[in-house]
Amino acid sequence: MNTLTDANLLKTADAMQLRESFDQLLSRHGAAPYPDWPVRAARLQSLINLLLEHRMRIAEAISADFGHRSSHETELLEVFPSVEGLRHALSHGKSWLRERRSPVSLWFLPGSAAVLPQPVGVVGIIVPWNYPLFLLIGPLTSAIVAGNLAMVKLSEFTPRFAALMAELLPKALGTDVVRVVTGGADVAAAFSSLPFGHLLFTGSTAVGHHVMRAAAEHLVPVTLELGGKSPAIITAETCANAARFSNAVRRIIAGKVLNAGQTCIAPDYVLLPEAAIPRFIAEAKDVLKKQYPEGAAGDDFTGVATDRHFARLQQLVTEATAAGAEASIVMAAARDGQRKLPLTVLTKCPDEMRVMQEEIFGPVLPLVAVESLDAAIAYVNERPHPLALYLFSDSSAQQQRVLQSTLAGGVSVNETLMHIAQDGLPFGGVGPSGMGHYHGRFGFDTMSKLKPVFRQSRINGMGLFAPPYGAFFSRMIKFMLRSG
User: Fold this and answer.
1) Helices 277-291 and 242-257 meet at what angle, rounded to 10?
2) DSSP assignment, residue 432?
3) Which among 146, 145, 117, 120 is positioned nearest to 453, based on CA atoms?
4) pTM above 0.85, yes or no
5) Distance of CA 224 to the CA centre of its chain
6) Buried b (16+ CB within 10 A) or exposed e, 218-233
7) Cis peptide, bond prior to residue 110, ω within 30 of zero
8) How far is CA 70 from CA 78, 309, 339, 424, in A?
9) Residue 13, CB half-sphere, CA atoms under 13 Å: how many?
10) Of all helices (H) and strands (E), which one includes residue 23?
11) Which residue intervals of 98-202 are DSSP H helices?
């Protein structure tokens, strides 16, 4: 007889507890499978109240988990877009619930057709560590406005934030609406195996494979928000215009240093003409000196979340420079003992190095020289489809060329990051950077079953097509085919 180890006993207990929580929520959903709008609206408003009332506690918890993160950055990057998304759902959700009339073919009149959005039941949400609030509340907003209940698995790398949410979310919504799950990789694996109505995972592509395999056991539909190497392209025409080039550098640097680059859609590398590279580095130094006068040591600059991630980033730079890359530290260094890495720009970086193969996820920015816009497009297309792409060009022709010639999860033109903050746009990846979309109505649709409904009229012509088939049927079919 096999004897379970303590670890296996823990796994079994975790799995049983998760299944029990899931079954309780599923039973609750079965008792009220289609909550009306006032119920959904009240839940959305409760989340808004939670965020506004406890935003400083949230910022303090996240800062403690990261080693340091400015409360201003948390309010800007996490609290504000979370509240905006909830308010957007409150303003528009009632209309999303309505049946959507659909046209009916001439041959089926006077019947009618419609699409009825229906809750799918219990939604699973796996939350990463880098934006623990925004990437919790965004999917949860979609789940709730669609009329679902939810289980959320929070990251073990943000334990203080997870503990705070385990306290606040049940108070705001009740355990009949949401259950908060904490724990490590074993818990996450068991969580992924539950028969959810829908499962949304945000994290690395490598872990996304495991999540999708686990979900496949119960044929659970998944939305995978993954990552990858998101490029920024600065065209030669933009480089020739000093003001527009300065703007491009400012916006790329902003997208890279917010949250210390620990953003799934942060610019991962920059494609630009070789002659512009020294100017980019000089501009970056000026920008960072103004925005972060104390450099990485200042309170406005975020720390790297864990010792392991910090060591990995340092190793990426060390490996690259050992292989011939040139590193420019473009801001003042942090103080000893701080887990902060000043923004480091790499040039002449060999393609085969890890920094050019893996998503960086930190304040390290390679600059890659390209001869033309065609070369930049080819460089992007030779690699896995990115989660985001950034183009800096005022030419509508160039914009259309890049948009039509590349495939990416989302695009911002003459800007970075901002497409994720638009509640009217879908957010999601493509291929290795993810699948599925959410935000706004797209999230509502993703977490609903769009049920097709055909209503037959009391007076209809279906009897004309019933057996026994004969000459009249043949004439009718011939007429129908020709009239198309």
Assistant:
1) 60
2) G
3) 117
4) yes
5) 8
6) eebbbbbbbbbbbbbb
7) yes
8) 12, 19, 14, 28
9) 8
10) helix 6-31
11) 134-145, 159-173, 185-192
- Structural domains in the chain, CATH included, are 6-226+434-450 (3.40.605.10), 231-428 (3.40.309.10)
Q: Does the pLDDT at position 2 exceed 80?
A: no
Active site residues: 225, 264
d(CA 148, CA 200): 13
- Residues 366-370: contacts with CB under 8 Å, at least 24 apart: 366/268, 366/269, 366/270, 366/320, 366/325, 367/269, 367/270, 367/272, 367/277, 367/280, 367/281, 368/269, 368/270, 368/271, 368/272, 369/272, 369/273, 369/274, 369/277, 370/271, 370/272, 370/273
For the chain, report the end-to-end CA distance as a whole number of angstroms. Answer: 70
> Mean pLDDT, the chain, as a whole number?
94
pLDDT of residue 482: 84
Q: What is the 3-state secondary structure (H, E, C) of 295-341?
A: HHHCCCCCCCCCHHHHHHHHHHHHHHHHCCCEEEECCCCCCCCCCCC
- Comparing CA positions, the residue from 247, 316, 320, 234 lying closest to residue 277 is 234
In a 3-state reduction of DSSP, which class is residue 119?
strand
In this structure, how many other beta carbons lie within 10 angstroms of the beta carbon of residue 387? 29
DSSP 115: E
Model confidence at 6, pLDDT cuts 50, 70, 90, reads very low
Amino acid identity at 262: Q
Structural contact between residues 273 and 239, judged by C-beta atoms closer than 8 angstroms: yes
